[in-house]
UniProtKB/TrEMBL annotation:
CDD domains: CYP71-like. Belongs to the cytochrome P450 family. Keywords: Heme, Iron, Metal-binding, Monooxygenase, Oxidoreductase, Signal. Heme binds at C432. PANTHER family: CYTOCHROME P450 71A9-LIKE ISOFORM X1 (PTHR47955:SF19), CYTOCHROME P450 FAMILY 71 PROTEIN (PTHR47955). This is Cytochrome P450. PROSITE patterns: CYTOCHROME_P450 (PS00086). Pfam families: p450 (PF00067).
Length: 494
C-alpha cells in the first residue's frame, strides 16, 4: 500500500534547515536573554543572528521573526499553518478554558465566536451607533480639564486621564455600566489592574516554561499564581454581576450594549429561552478580552501620541491649526469632523509605528510544519513577530527613530494588515478585530485635546528633558515609563 502523502510533512531531523540559534543554557534555554523589554532584547539578538531565529524559552521552541519578508511568510503565505495561540495555564484560567477570542487556539469554536464579535459589535455600523457615548465621555474629559485649568496651573496626569477616558467609553459600550459605578472607579485603578494582568500574562509563570515540577516550585516561590488567581476571581465576580444585571427582567437599557448583543446572539442560536445560561462563560470570556484588549491599547497609544506631540512643537502647531481651521468657532468637535483631519490621522499612524502598544503582537503557535524564509518550523513551535523592530527597520524606514508624521504623505502604507513592514494591529486570521473601534476613539479623543487646549510641560521643563523611555516590565503592552504630566491652557470657552 502506498503511504498517504501529507503536504506539510515534518522533515526528518537531519534534513531540517533550522533557523540560527543563540547558545542556550541548560533548563532555561534562552529565557535569560529576554530581559524586561523583550522586543528590545530580541531586536539586539536578531541583529546578530538574523531576522529568523530559533530560541528556546525553557522547554518551548520559539521562532522570532524580525523582518517584513519573514512576517509576510508568517501572516500571508502560512497564516493557516500558524493561526493558533499557545495554551498556557494562565490564559486558560483567564478565558474560562479558552472561550474567548484572543487567546483561544484555532478551532471551530474560535471561528464562530470571532465571527459573532466581528459581525455583531466590531462592525462599522455598530461602532458608529455608539457615537453619542464617545461624544459624552470626551465632553466630560474636556470639562474636567477646563475646570482644572481655570483654577490651577498644576499639571494634569494625562496618562491616567486617558485611561479613564478609554475605560469610560468601553464600560458603557461594552458593559452597559459606567466606570465610576464599578469597583474600579478611576483611570488609575483600571490602569493598575490591567497592568498587573498583562505583566503576569507577558511574563507567564514558571509552569509554562519548565517541566511541571520546577514550574510549580517557581510559581509558589514568586507568588505569581496566587496574585493571578485573586485578580481573575475578582474579575469573574464583576463580569458575572454584569451578566446577572443584564438578565434582570425590566432592566432599564441605555442602548444595546455588547453584553446584550452576546446574550441575544446566544439565545437566537439555541432558540431556547434560558439556554443562554449555558453560554455565560463564553460571554464572560469575551468581556475579559474587551477588558484586557480594548482599554490599555487605546490609552497607551494616546499617551505616546500626546508625548510626541508635546516633544515636537512643530507637529503640535500643525495639528492644532488643522483641527482649529476645520472647526473654527463652532465650539464643538463632532466625530464626523475628525474624518477630515488628515494630519491627525498621520500622527496616529506615526505613533503606532514608533510606539506600537503591543510590539510583539500576540504569540502564535504553529499547527503544522511550514517554512519561514526557507527555515523549517515544527508544529507546536511558538512564533513571535517583533513588529516593533520591523517598524523601526532602517532598511525600510528613513530616519526610523524620528517622529515624522509626514513620512506617510502620499504613501499607501496603512495598518490594515497588508503592509508587512507596519503591523501594529497584526495581520491574517488573528488580526485585531477592534481596529475601527480603536481608531475612532483615538481620532476623536486627540482632536478634542488639540482643539480645546494648548499643552505645556510643567515647571519650565524643556522638551529635551521629556523622558521618552519605555516601561520595561515584560508586559504584553509597552507604555511610557513615566506618567505624562502636562499643563493645559484652555483656548475656547465651551
Ligand atoms: C490602538 C489600539 C489597538 C491595538 C494597537 C491593538 C493591537 C492588537 C494586536 C497586535 C493583536 C494581535 C493580532 C495578531 O495576532 O495578529 C490584537 C488582537 C486582538 N484585539 Fe486589538 N488592538 C487595539 C484595540 C483593540 C480594541 C479596542 C479591542 C476591543 C474592544 C481589541 C480586541 C482585540 C481582540 C479580541 C484580539 C484577538 C483577535 C484574535 O485572536 O482573533 N483590540 N490587537
Amino acid at each position: 500500500l502506498k503511504k498517504k502523502q501529507h503536504v506539510n510533512k515534518t522533515p526528518q531531523n537531519k534534513q531540517k534547515h533550522l533557523p540560527p540559534s543563540p547558545p542556550k543554557l541548560p533548563l532555561i534555554g534562552n529565557l535569560h536573554q529576554l530581559g524586561s523589554a523583550p522586543h528590545r532584547s530580541l531586536l539586539q539578538l536578531s541583529q546578530k543572528y538574523g531576522p529568523v531565529m530559533l530560541l528556546h524559552l525553557g522547554r518551548i521552541p520559539t521562532v522570532v521573526v524580525s523582518s517584513a519578508e519573514a512576517a509576510k511568510d508568517v501572516f500571508k503565505t502560512n497564516d493557516l499553518h500558524c493561526c493558533s495561540r499557545p495554551t498556557y495555564a494562565g490564559s486558560r484560567r483567564l478565558t474560562y478554558n479558552y472561550l474567548d477570542v484572543a487567546f483561544s487556539p484555532y478551532s471551530d469554536y474560535w471561528r464562530e465566536i470571532r465571527k459573532i464579535c466581528v459581525v455583531e459589535f466590531f462592525s462599522v455600523k455598530r461602532v458608529q451607533s455608539y457615537r453619542s457615548i464617545r461624544e459624552e465621555e470626551v465632553a466630560k474629559m474636556v470639562k474636567s480639564i477646563s475646570d482644572h485649568s481655570s483654577s490651577s496651573v498644576a499639571p494634569v496626569d494625562v496618562s491616567e486621564m486617558l485611561f479613564a477616558l478609554v475605560a469610560s467609553i468601553l464600560f458603557r459600550v461594552g458593559f452597559g455600566t459606567s466606570l465610576q459605578s464599578s469597583n474600579y472607579k478611576s483611570g488609575k485603578a483600571i490602569h493598575k489592574i490591567i497592568h498587573d494582568m498583562e505583566t503576569m500574562l507577558g511574563g507567564m509563570s514558571g509552569a509554562e516554561y519548565f517541566p511541571a515540577w520546577i514550574g510549580w516550585i517557581t510559581d509558589r516561590v514568586t507568588g505569581v499564581q496566587k496574585k493571578f488567581d485573586r485578580i481573575t476571581s475578582e474579575l469573574d465576580v464583576f463580569f458575572q454581576q454584569l451578566v446577572d444585571d443584564h438578565l434582570t427582567p425590566g432592566r432599564k437599557q441605555e442602548h444595546e450594549d455588547i453584553i446584550d448583543v452576546l446574550l441575544r446572539t446566544l439565545k437566537e442560536q439555541t432558540g431556547v429561552v434560558g439556554a443562554a445560561q449555558l453560554g455565560h462563560a463564553s460571554v464572560k470570556a469575551v468581556l475579559m478580552d474587551l477588558f484586557l484588549g480594548g482599554i490599555d491599547t487605546g490609552a497607551i497609544t494616546m499617551w505616546w501620541a500626546m508625548a510626541e506631540i508635546v516633544k515636537n512643537p512643530r507637529v503640535m502647531k500643525k495639528a492644532q491649526q488643522e483641527v482649529r481651521n476645520c472647526i473654527g468657532n463652532k465650539g464643538l468637535v463632532s466625530e464626523s469632523d475628525t474624518e477630515q483631519l488628515e494630519y491627525l490621522k498621520k500622527i496616529i499612524k506615526e505613533t503606532l509605528r514608533l510606539h506600537p502598544p503591543a510590539p510583539m503582537i500576540l504569540p502564535r503557535e504553529a499547527m503544522s510544519h511550514f517554512k519561514i524564509q526557507g527555515y523549517d518550523v515544527d508544529p507546536k513551535t511558538l512564533i513571535l513577530v517583533n513588529e516593533g523592530a520591523i517598524a523601526r527597520d532602517p532598511k525600510i524606514w528613513n530616519d526610523p527613530e524620528e517622529f515624522f508624521p509626514e513620512r506617510f504623505d502620499g504613501s499607501s502604507v496603512d495598518f490594515k494588515g497588508q503592509h508587512y513592514e507596519y503591523l501594529p494591529f497584526g495581520a491574517g486570521r488573528r488580526m485585531c478585530p477592534g481596529i475601527y473601534m480603536a481608531t475612532t476613539t483615538l481620532q476623536f479623543g486627540l482632536a478634542n485635546l488639540l482643539y480645546w487646549f494648548d499643552w505645556k510641560l510643567p515647571n519650565g521643563m524643556k522638551v529635551e528633558d521629556l523622558d521618552m523611555e519605555e516601561s520595561a516590565d515584560a508586559s504584553l503592552t509597552v507604555p511610557m515609563k513615566n506618567h505624562l504630566l502636562l499643563v493645559p491652557q484652555k483656548l475656547y470657552q465651551n
